[in-house]
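Deliverable D4.2, example record:
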Amino acid sequence: MSDGAITQLLVVMESFVMGGVERVTLRLLQALQQAHPELNITVAVQHNSGALASEFNQTLQIAELPSGTFAQGKAIRQLALTLHSQLVLFTKGGLSRYQLFLPRGVRGVVVQHVPLALPGLSAGKNALRRLIAAVCYRLVDKVVTVSDGLNQDVCNALRLVPTKVKTIYNPVLTSSVNALAREALPASMLPLPAYFLCVGRLDFQKGYDMLLQIWQQPQLQQQHVCIIGDGPLSNTLSEQIAQLGLSDRVHLLGADNNPYRYMQHAKALLLPSRFEGLPTVLVEAAALGTQLVAFDCPHGPKELLNAGRDGYLVAPGDISDFATAVAAIAQGQNKPLPDVSAFFAEAAASNYYQLFTQLCNGR
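Output generated by the structure prediction step:
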C-alpha cells in the first residue's frame, strides 16, 4: 500500500431512511468495501433507524450519535481519534458543520446532492442555507457535487475556486438492479393495466401536486400512474386524488425496497420534480430500458437527458407539454435513452477512492 493511501474512513449520516441519498451512500460504501477490503469504514449516524437500517447494520460498522449538535460533534471527534480516521465523509451538506470538531489533520469531504437555493423555502431561509454553506464549505477539503450543473451552482453561489469542487456521479447502478427488476410484481398489481411510474419521497420537491394536474389533462384520461414512496404529503395527496376523482387512475403504492420491478414493466418513468441534484431514478430506469419524461428542473435532468435528445425533457412547470410527452409514449413514440455506464457503483467507488487517496497525500 502506498504512503497516504486511506485505510480508515468515517462517514457521517442523518439516518437510514429509504431516500435517494441513503440508497446511493449504501451502494458507494459497499462498493468501496468490495474493491478495497483494507479500507475500514465506520458510519456515524444521528438516528440508527429507517427502512435501510438492517442493510447498513449487516454490512458496516455503525455508531449511533447522541442527541444535540454539540454532543454529536464531540462524539464524531472522539470517533475520529479512536479510529485514527484519516478522512471524514459528510453525506449531506448540512453535516459539514461537524468539520469544526475534527482533530487537526483529518480531511473532510462533503457531498452536495441538491441546489443551494431550494424552491419552496423563503428567501431568508435560502440566504441562511447559502451563508452556512459558504462558511462550512471553506472549512472542508473538498466539495463533491453529483452533477456538473450542481457544480456550477455551488461554485457561483459560494464563490469557491473550481479546484475546491469536484463532480462525481452517484453510484446508482449495481449488478443487483437487473436481478431485482426480474422479481415478480405484487399480486395487487396484476389487475392493473399498462401504467406510468413515479418513484420518490412524497414531499414538495417531487412535484406530485403538478403530477395530479398533469393527470387531469384530456389526453391522459385513459392512462394510469403508480407512485412509489412515502413522506409528509402522503395523506394530503390521498385526499387530493379522491377530491379530483383520480382514484381509479392514480395509485399510491407506498414505500417499496424494490422499485426496479415496477420500472421494468412501466411505460415510462416520470419525474415532475421542482429541483434535483441528479435524479437517480432516471438513471435506474434508463438502465432498465424504460422511457423517461422529466421537467427541466435544476439540476440534472437536462444533463442526463442530453438536452432532450435522450428522453423527453419538458420546460419546468409546463403541465400541458408534460402530458403531451406522456401521451406520445402511450402511442409508441419512444425516444433514445441516455448512456448511463458512468453511474455504476464500481466507477463511483473508484472516483471517490482516488479523491480520498489524493487528499490523504496532501494533494
